[in-house]
Amino acid sequence: MTMSRVKEQKHRWGGADRVKPKRHPTYAEMVKSALVSLNNRASSSIQTIMKYILTKYLLNATPAKKYCTKALTNGVTKDVFHQTRSEDF
After folding, report:
1. Per the database record, which ranges form the H15 domain (predicted)?
2. What is the pTM assigned to this prediction?
3. Considering its fold, how many domains does the chain have in total?
4. Which of 9, 16, 44, 82 has the most C-beta neighbours closer than 10 Å?
């Protein structure tokens, strides 16, 4: 087989050109929507944020907690979110 024929087969069957539809928004967007909807001016705990995200988007709890925590820490370092207490996540 030549290289051009292999490329044609990949393209014909979808291969890398195929894009999966998104099931949910990014974790940063989910955390932001959770903080807006919870509307707690003092602070919102990670447990309440996770509870909101898990009920609204129907995700698996174990990887969601990891990615949610990562989104929160990245948001705090990029000044997207404001951390009221100086505790680590």
Report:
1. 23-89
2. 0.67
3. 1
4. 44
Opening angle at CA 45, ends 41 and 48, nearest 5: 100
Residue in this structure with the two tokens 């990887």, named with its chain if needed: 63
Domain holding 70, by residue range, is: 24-89
Distance (Å, rounded) from C-alpha 28 to C-alpha 86? 20
* Cα–Cα separations (whole angstroms), residue 29 to 6, 7, 53, 68: 39, 37, 10, 10
Whether 72 shows a pLDDT value over 60: the answer reads yes
What distance lies between CA 47 and its chain's CA centroid? 16
At 22, the pLDDT band (50, 70, 90 cuts) reads confident
How many beta carbons lie within 10 A of that of residue 10, not counting itself? Answer: 12
Using DSSP, state whether 26 is helix, strand or coil: coil
Report yes or no on 51 lying in a domain.
yes
